[in-house]
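Table 4 source record.
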Amino acid sequence: MNPRRHHRSSGEPGREGSPPPDEVTAIFDGMLQHARELLAVRSPLDAELIVSEILGSWWAKRVPDGDVEEIIGEALVDYAGAAGTPAALALLIGIAYMGTPRQAAKAERAALELMGKGVARPGWADRVGMVAPEDCFVSRDVYGDQDSIVCTYTYGGAERHALVILVDRNKAGAVPRAGDPFARAARTGRPPMPGMVRDAWVSSKVDRLLDHCRREGRDNPLMQFETLDSRDARALLQSALDLTDDTDDPPVNENFGSYHAFVRARVDILPPGGRLPQAPVYGRDRRATIAARFLASDEAEDLSDRSAASRCVDRIIEYGCTHDFGRPLRVSPVKCEMFLLDWLPRKVLLSPSEQEAVPHVLA
C-alpha cells in the first residue's frame, strides 16, 4: 500500500482537534502568508493556480503511519479557519473547490462560518470552480513514447485557457500474463494503466498553442496531432493520474506538485463515459509465435549463437508484453534505453553469450 494513503491511527498527534506542533504552525503561517496573494488577484484562474500551488506543498510527501492529505491538508483547513483572516477565507474557498473530498467539506464549513462573521470574500469567489470544458486534443510522437493531452476550458465563455498534461507511455502499468491470478492487476481488480502523468502546465494563449501543435503535426513526420474525445481524455487522464499518485517517489517534473490539485479538478469536470485503452494480453503460445517468426526472418539470419539469441528474444518480448502495455513489437530509442539500462540489469542475470547477443538481436 502506498504510504501516502495509509489510514491514520487514533493515536496520531495530528488528529482532528489536536493543535499542530510549533514547526507545523510555522509552516502553516507561511502558507497563509502565501495565501495573501489571493487577495491581490482578480481572475479565478489565477486564484485556483495559487491554491493548487499551496496544496502541492505536501503532495507526494510521506508521513509515518498516516495520510499526508489528512494530517497536513486537513490540519491546514483547521488552522485557516481559526486564523479568520481574509487571506485564510480566500484559501478556504479555494480548498473547498480543489481539495480532497474531506478537505473540501471541512473548508466549506469553515468558510461559511467566517463569512457569517463578516470576513470579506475575495472578488473572484463567486466564479471559482465555475469553469466548463471545451475541447480536447492529443499531440503524440510516432514512436508511442508519450502523449501530450491538451484540454481547453472557459469561465462562461471568458478567460479561455488550455491545460497541457504529459502522459509518459513508457511508464505504463504492468500487464499480467493471461490467466495469472497473482498479478497486481488481477489482485486489485484494476486494469493496467496505459501511462503515467509526469508533467502539466497551463497556457492562456490557447489559439497560439493549438496553431503550433497543428503546424508541428503537419510539418514534423515524427509527430501527430488530432482531436480527442473528451470522455476518452478523462478516462485516460484519470488512469494515468492514479498511477502517478500510487507510485512512490514518482518521476515527475519538479514543479508538477504545484499543478496536481488543479489537474485533478480540471480532469474531474470532463464528461464521463470514456473508453480506457486496453492492453493486449499475450499468452505463452502467442509470445512463442512472435519469437519464432523473428528467428526465422532475414534479420536474424546472421545471428551466430541461435540459442543465446532465442533467450534474448524471449526477454525482449517479455518486457514489451508486460511493461510496455502489451506492445512487444514497438520500437523506440527510449524504450530500448529503458530495457537495456534499467529493466534488464535489474531483472535478469545474463550469461556471457547472452550479453554478446543482446545488441545484435535489438539491432
